[in-house]
Specification:
5 helices; 4 strands; four-stranded antiparallel β-sheet; alpha+beta
Amino acid sequence: MSGTSRKIQIAVALTLVVAFAVLSRSYAQDATQSPKPVNADWRPNRPTKGVKFVGSQVCAGCHKTKATSQPKTSMGLALAAPRNCTILSSHSKLTFRNGKYEYAITRDADRSLYTVTDGTSTISVPVL
């Protein structure tokens, strides 16, 4: 795998981790509600009342080529659960700096922790 391809995979993984960290933080702030899965009401097109996503296996019945190739793409690999994510498990620490902010994902056994700091304040959340 080329270095550029690997960097793209890491960038995609970091982007998704940021999104999941923000979502998990918002769930954690309201302990009175039990969290529901992020994709519980996801629809692949315009919302249609009473219609829910039927699942990947049903879609694969008509879209065999896409269903076979998608999990092997950078995006398909980036959608792995943190516990099973090969990018996260093969890197004990991933960092990115933008201005005064530093972003890091550190790996501890099968758990990943997302941390952002500006050098003064720091916030950390587990990657769910």
